[in-house]
Write a structure and sequence with these properties.
Blueprint lengths: L2 H37 L3 H19 L3 H15 L3 H38 L2 H14 L3 H16 L4 H23 L9 H29 L8 H33 L3 H37 L4 H29 L5 H4 L3 H16 L1 H16 L3 H26 L2 H25 L14
Helix pairs in contact: 1-7, 1-10, 1-11, 2-4, 2-5, 2-9, 2-10, 3-4, 3-6, 3-9, 3-10, 4-5, 4-6, 4-8, 4-9, 5-8, 6-8, 7-8, 9-15, 9-16, 10-11, 10-13, 10-14, 11-13, 11-14, 13-16, 14-16, 15-16
């Protein structure tokens, strides 16, 4: 690859990654604000938020194929010059988001209490989790519409408007949360559930903006707005593998939350603080991966040296991810004594935080490479491989150590050792795949497997 082409590609990556970064960071950053606001209520409300937050995260994590799968399919069509079909992917993904979101809302209300009670070990923590979760579930269809909107816009390499839309919704939530939780003026606020209502308000604004943009784009590019069974089936096929991959993540994080809860409110609250920072940092590093998804998909859809361009991009984003990961690891190590007190004044919780903190800081370089290569393989539509490798890493690495931590009383040290092994196994898997050419499949549509 020549120096000129490398510079051109670097410019493209930065153009897409720069606005994608605040979009990715907006939701976890709001959750960090939420954690800090609720943390002032004490350990039990914060522990309840930890349990409920992990459960509600299933909406975005388990169904992220609406974003990642749509990006991969739309990017190939965009690279092949078929913009109308690329926008059509967004239309169908949005129909799917609405249908699935309503199902999540109904089923979630039915199972909120028994599931939260199981994870929260009953008692006050479980009650707090249920009160938050029942309200937050109202926003499930809105969250999924936003995921679909981000997906098709990234596919057509428009990351500027999603930035404005997401910041508008999350900005409203961040402003409303402290007032609703703690009150303003002479009003005492409504406590923990105030943060859930702030979530719903922000999600309503964001989803409305994405829907408006989709309708305008469909009319401009003559993309049909009615459901298409053929496209929906294709999206569900790709989504099947991404859902299985997400199941591995959620089995790990739900197990970690359940085990942490058994060690008491202070332990699970400390875990919540570091986990939210991990989620925030993972998505910050994923900004480069978002650019890779769009550019790799477009390259593989293009008839002009697509395979060569895609492989060159894979090498670039790997280097970018490594550099960012090292930088953030050093930063969080330096902030180890400064940042945790921002989230809670509880001395017992702060005493528990360092156990997880140093695992979190040390994993940043590994995470930088893993998330970057995830983006490459997702952009190529190589979801089946990602599904299998992630499931194996969870079954072999994370889950045995999580449950051993409960059996032998290892606490946070055992939980975060499991997460570290999970990430190392994923690094080996995506690294080996990227070095091969098996993910490099050209054409406007990747053949189904």
């Amino acid at each position: 690859m020549t120096t000129t082409s490398a510079r051109a590609n670097a410019s493209e990556v930065f153009r897409l990654a720069a606005p994608a970064l605040p979009v990715l960071a907006a939701e976890p950053l709001y959750l960090l604000v939420d954690t800090a606001v609720v943390g002032r209520l004490g350990a039990v409300p914060l522990a309840g938020l930890a349990i409920a937050g992990v459960l509600f995260a299933q909406v975005t994590s388990q169904l992220n194929f609406l974003s990642y799968g749509t990006t991969a399919r739309a990017a190939r069509l965009h690279g092949a010059g078929r913009r109308s079909d690329a926008v059509g992917e967004g239309v169908q993904a949005t129909w799917l988001a609405l249908a699935v979101g309503l199902l999540v809302l109904v089923v979630g209300q039915l199972v909120a209490h028994p599931v939260a009670s199981a994870l929260g070990n009953g008692g006050d923590i479980a009650d707090a989790a249920v009160s938050w979760l029942r309200i937050a579930l109202i926003g499930a269809p809105l969250v999924l519409v936003t995921l679909a909107g981000n997906g098709w816009m990234r596919g057509v390499q428009d990351t500027a408007r999603p930035l404005r839309y997401v910041l508008a919704g999350n900005g409203l939530s961040a402003l409303a949360c402290p007032a609703l939780v703690h009150g303003v003026g002479g009003w005492a606020g409504i406590g923990l559930v105030g943060s859930a209502w702030a979530n719903v308000a922000g999600q309503t604004v964001g989803a409305s903006l994405f829907l408006g943009a989709l309708v305008r784009a469909a009319r401009a590019d003559a993309a049909p707005l009615r459901p298409s069974a053929t496209v929906l089936r294709s999206q569900i096929t790709l989504g099947r593998d991404l859902i299985a991959r997400s199941l591995a993540f959620q089995a790990c994080f739900l197990s970690a939350a359940a085990v942490a809860t058994r060690f008491g409110a202070a332990t699970v609250a400390a875990h919540q603080i570091v986990l939210q920072l991990w989620t925030f940092q993972a998505l910050v590093l994923d900004a480069v991966a978002i650019a890779a998804q769009s550019l790799v998909g477009a390259a593989l859809g293009s008839p002009d040296r697509g395979a060569e361009r895609a492989k060159a991009l894979a090498g670039q984003v790997t280097r970018y991810g490594l550099v960012l990961g090292i930088g953030f690891g050093v930063l969080y190590a330096a902030l180890s004594g400064v940042l945790p007190p921002v989230f809670t004044p509880d001395a017992e919780v702060l005493d528990a935080v360092p156990v997880a903190w140093w695992f979190f800081a040390a994993m940043q370089p590994v995470a930088g490479v893993v998330f970057a290569l995830d983006g490459v393989l997702l952009g190529a539509g190589d979801a089946a491989y990602l599904r299998t490798s992630t499931l194996l890493a969870a079954v072999v690495g994370f889950l045995p150590l999580i449950w051993a931590s409960l059996a032998f009383g290892w606490g946070l040290a055992g939980i975060w050792t499991g997460l570290t092994l999970f990430m190392v196994l994923r690094l080996v898997a995506v690294g080996l795949r990227a070095r091969s050419d098996r993910w490099v499949v050209t054409g406007a549509v990747r053949p189904a497997r």
